[in-house]
Design a protein that fits this description.
mainly alpha
Length: 91
């Protein structure tokens, strides 16, 4: 799978996930696309949708926490109104 195909699949998944969980996606198309491209790049290179805004440690157990949606996103949305990557926003 190349980055373009990965981006298309991830974009569809992100929109579905946001809708199913009562979130909205970043309304700024440039920021939204930048995060999608980052996720796609990580997916192609590393095999998972690792958060492009967080640094991978190389430890699979630690890095599993930053696979999008990361374990932090719901708390961040509650406290900040959006996740760290600015991908998901409070409705």
């Amino acid at each position: 799978m190349d980055e373009l195909e990965a981006a298309r699949l991830i974009r569809d998944w992100v929109k579905r996930y946001a809708e199913e969980n009562g979130f909205k996606v970043n309304p700024d198309p440039k920021q939204f696309d930048a995060v999608i491209r980052g996720l796609a790049r990580k997916m192609v290179r590393n095999g998972e949708r690792y958060c492009p805004c967080r640094i991978m440690s190389g430890d699979p157990d630690v890095d599993a926490k930053i696979i999008c949606p990361c374990i932090y996103h719901k708390d961040e949305i509650v406290t900040d109104g959006h996740c760290h990557c600015n991908l998901f926003f409070r409705e």
